[in-house]
């Protein structure tokens, strides 16, 4: 029995997935030589709403600092805020992965993340 072409679709999907990390490695979102804040969050509405609130607070506090939401595929039930420095090092501003239940413990107050960012940049 002849194959139905599934193999070609899988190859095309794999090619599409490899383009995003290359784009990020080249600095397509935020530049290579500058600090940036990355927010990784699960794709549910609740996580997205909290991520947007945190990103707005960070943009108001530091408008020159780019904030990226989910530059790669997020982990399940994740909510993390990370500062990536120009030298390649990372500083975790918030991680809600091991927090909860209840789910509300997974999400920080936006002001709390801004204070942690100020500490890390000082």
TrEMBL record:
One of its GO terms (cellular component) is Golgi apparatus. It comes from Vombatus ursinus (Common wombat). May be involved in a redox-related process. Keywords: Acetylation, Redox-active center. It comes from the Eukaryota. Belongs to the SelWTH family. The gene is SELENOH. Residues 1-33 are annotated as: Disordered. Pfam families: Rdx. This is Selenoprotein H.
